[in-house]
Design goal:
- The structure holds two protein chains of two kinds.
- By secondary structure, chain A is mainly α.
- Helix content of chain A is 79%, strand content 0%.
- Chain A has two domains: 42 residues; 230 residues, MetI-like (MetI-like fold), CATH 1.10.3720.10.
- Chain A is globular and about 75 Å long.
- The two termini of chain A are 37 Å apart.
- The N terminus of chain A is likely disordered.
- By secondary structure, chain B is an all-alpha fold.
- Chain B folds into two domains: 38 residues, no CATH class; 215 residues, MetI-like fold.
- Chain B has a two-stranded antiparallel ribbon with strand order 1-2.
- In chain B, helix 3 crosses helix 10.
- The longest helix of chain B is centred in the N-terminal third of the chain and has 31 residues.
- The relative contact order of chain B is 0.13.
- The chains are: A mainly alpha, B mainly alpha.
- Chains A and B meet through helix 1, helix 3, helix 4, helix 5 and helix 7 of A and helix 1, helix 3, helix 4, helix 5 and helix 7 of B.
Chain lengths: 282, 264
């Protein structure tokens, strides 16, 4: 009786030993910065602990930037999830293997495309001297606002949604649709009562991923809009690189903590959903 | 009939939205009203100051990140399957961290930790260590940060690969035949994981070749940071670099799926 138990215990010990380097690096490379961040966010000017920094981030101009970041991410998440799902469904039902392959490959590439290069490409297209701007006779500043930023963020968000939702759409069995039709259901009824409930977790999970991507994006916004659209990532970068008054470093830490709390709340929705949707992908 | 119409409209709108900016970007880099067609913008990339150095820095960082991420993740993932299932939730949590801590907040934490550490350790030998990991040509700090960001990708591809092989039988057979642990890892497990190791590697490399926020805010001149600094006021050059970096991602993914297919 004792033999297997002991050997399992020994295996467990060796197992934790094998993972020790990973745990140690995580503690150093992630643990220290996060602890420093949290402690710094609660450290007030006098050196003691308090809520001064965090309550400062709940006032203007910071609260406006936080709110604008959340709003932008929500717009991108909802629009990206809906458009991505429609695009994926259109591609998957087109019965053209070539189109499917091409769109999925392109989605893989574009969902990884971001940062400043993305901004440059859109500036050449819709910037003040962009080709489309001139061709359509749009005025200056068409791109450099909230909706312009949302349009650009969708360029990597929609492809990401296509990648996330495609396996779930593939999992919608044709038999379900036939069964619904045989029972006299309309297309709308099929989607409302079968399709959307089955896809729900993947749709929401994808939406959460898009929210996170848009919420964390910094370089594209910095290159495109500068300060004309207030965003929390831009405020943090300004505070970090000293573009603001001295003594505001801890505001950057407090804003970072705000961001982490928001991301944590959003991820709390995502993790249980991911487990639920994996049931349908089996 | 309605089905065909909505599909055409969706695909048409998507094609315009995704292809027009790309086509314009490529056109913009090769055509100039005063000079006509020329590939000069792409030629200027290679001769631009700092191109070689920043590319080398990023490639070195990428190589270090790939090696380190594999060396850290693979033993841990094997342990999960060989008798420490309790590790799994811990690993899942670690690989979720980069989703919860956005890069910009991560770099704020790193910068403050380094500043605080340098002040606190000024009188001790550790100070020298802190300075040397911030070396400009090969910043170890960046390697560690990128390893953390790459872990989720590496973890997922390695986990998928391990699911396809019977790890326990392979390891026990090899151990019973007298193989040492390094031999088991490098000669038994790794050859069976070729495609998922390749995919973990390419995803890590793609991350390193594209990450801007952390490197820029810490003042390092990696390739993505160089792209931004060199673009300056040369519009054609900046768009050419954007097209180039998109091509780079495409090439990496193509190699990735090619490697996956060959190993199957």
């Amino acid at each position: 009786m004792t033999g297997p138990v002991r050997s399992r215990r020994r295996g467990g010990g060796a197992g934790w030993l094998a993972a020790a380097p990973l745990l140690a690096v995580t503690l150093i490379a992630f643990g220290i910065p996060v602890v420093v961040l949290v402690v710094g966010a609660f450290t007030v000017k006098t050196g003691g602990l308090g809520f001064d920094n965090l309550s400062a981030t709940m006032r203007e101009p910071y609260i406006g930037a936080l709110w604008s970041s959340v709003k932008l991410s929500a717009v991108v998440a909802v629009a990206g999830a809906i458009l991505g799902a429609f695009l994926a469904q259109a591609v998957l039902t087109s019965r053209s293997g070539l189109l499917r392959e091409a769109v999925l490959t392109a989605s893989g590439v574009l969902s990884n495309f971001g940062g400043v290069p993305l901004a440059f490409i859109w500036i050449a297209t819709l910037g003040n001297s962009g080709v489309v701007t001139a061709a359509l006779g749009l005025g200056p500043g068409a791109l450099y606002n909230f909706w312009g930023l949302a349009l650009v963020y969708l360029y990597f968000s929609v492809p990401l949604m296509v990648l996330v939702i495609a396996p779930a759409l593939d999992g919608l069995k044709p038999q379900w649709r036939e069964a619904a039709q045989n029972n006299g259901a309309s297309t709308w009824q099929f989607w409302r009562m079968v399709g959307i409930p089955v896809l729900g977790p993947s749709l929401l999970g994808g939406g959460v991923l898009l929210f996170g991507g848009a919420f964390a994006a910094y370089a594209t916004a910095a290159a495109m809009v500068g300060a004309s659209v207030p965003l929390v990532t831009l405020q943090i970068a300004d505070a970090l690189t000293g573009n603001v008054l001295i003594g505001y470093e801890n505001i950057a830490l407090a804003l970072s903590l705000d961001m982490i709390v928001i991301a944590l709340l959003v991820m709390a929705v995502y993790l249980p959903l991911q487990k639920r949707s994996s049931r349908w992908l089996a | 009939m309605a089905g065909v119409t909505w599909r055409r409209v969706t695909l048409g709108v998507a094609a315009v939205y995704f292809l027009v900016p790309l086509a314009i970007a490529v056109w913009f880099t090769v055509y100039n009203e005063s000079r006509g067609f020329s590939l000069g913008a792409y030629g200027r990339i290679v001769s631009a100051p700092g191109f070689g150095e920043s590319l080398l820095t990023s490639l070195l960082l990428g190589a270090a990140v790939i090696v380190l991420v594999l060396l850290l993740a693979l033993p841990a993932l094997l342990a999960v399957r060989l008798g420490a299932p309790g590790l799994r939730p811990v690993l899942e949590t670690i690989t979720t961290l980069p989703l919860i801590v956005p890069p910009i907040t991560y770099v704020v934490g790193i910068a403050n930790a380094l500043r605080g550490g340098t002040d606190a350790l000024a009188a001790t030998p550790f100070w020298q260590t802190l300075i040397s990991i911030q070396d400009e040509d090969f910043p170890v700090v960046l390697v560690l940060a990128y390893v953390m960001l790459a872990l989720p990708f590496a973890y997922r591809s390695l986990d998928t690969g391990l699911r396809a092989i019977d790890v326990r039988t392979l390891v026990e057979a090899a151990r019973n035949l007298g193989a040492s642990w390094p031999y088991v890892l490098f000669r038994v497990i790794l050859p069976n994981l070729r495609s998922s190791v390749a995919s973990a590697g390419f995803l890590s490399l793609a991350l390193v070749m594209g990450e801007y926020t952390i490197a820029a805010l810490m003042g390092y001149r990696t390739f993505p940071v160089w792209i931004v600094t060199i673009s300056g006021n040369d519009g054609q050059l900046s768009v050419a670099l954007s097209v180039l970096s998109l091509g780079l991602i495409w090439l990496l993914l193509l190699t990735l799926s090619g490697a996956g297919r060959k190993a199957k």
